[in-house]
Amino acid sequence: MFETVFKHFYKTSYGMIYLTLRRLSNEGLVEKEVVIQEGKPNKNVYHITEKGKKAFAEY
């Protein structure tokens, strides 16, 4: 989906996305929620924090 929606604006890879999400999480800008799924790998859902919203607004 990412490639479809943003392909005209930004070129990236899944590896780069997860590296960036890890960095944002380490900085407290997003939080990761692990969703347990039966018969499938667990899903990581990321939520922006208040600190992240503030940083985004200042950007």
UniProtKB/TrEMBL annotation:
Q: Where is the Transcription regulator PadR N-terminal domain?
A: 4-58
One Pfam entry for this protein is PadR
InterPro entries linked: Tscrpt_reg_PadR_N, WH-like_DNA-bd_sf, WH_DNA-bd_sf
Q: Which domain of life is it from?
A: Bacteria
| Annotated protein name in UniProt | Transcription regulator PadR N-terminal domain-containing protein
> Species name for this entry?
Ligilactobacillus apodemi DSM 16634 = JCM 16172
